[in-house]
Amino acid sequence: MSARFYVSGQDPLLPRTLADFRFELRRFLHFSECNANEAGLQPQQHQLLLHVAGAPEGTDVTIAYACCACSFI
């Protein structure tokens, strides 16, 4: 039997929606990690390159920027 938790006033579909979102997110992360590895990169290196390439125009891409973008600090 599975446990069901319900918070008064909460949309009863919210837990299912969050579970579906988490599943799809993990699926995407797995896909991304596999492609990074196939390209000879560690997943963290790939994420760093994405942050550097996708930095907003005019943004100084510094070590501090990269650390914040990659959640290192």
Mean pLDDT: 88
Q: Termini separation (Å)?
A: 41 Å
Helices and strands: which structural class?
Answer: mainly alpha
Number of helices: 3
Please tell me about this protein's structure:
The chain is mostly helical and 73 residues long. It contains three helices and no strands. The chain is extended and about 45 Å long. 0% of the residues are buried. The model has no long low-confidence stretch (mean pLDDT 88).
Summarize, please.
This protein has helices spanning 14-38, 43-53, 63-69. With 73 residues, the protein is mainly alpha-helical.
Structure characteristics:
3 helices; mainly alpha; 59% helix
SSE topology sketch:
Elements: H1 14-38, H2 43-53, H3 63-69
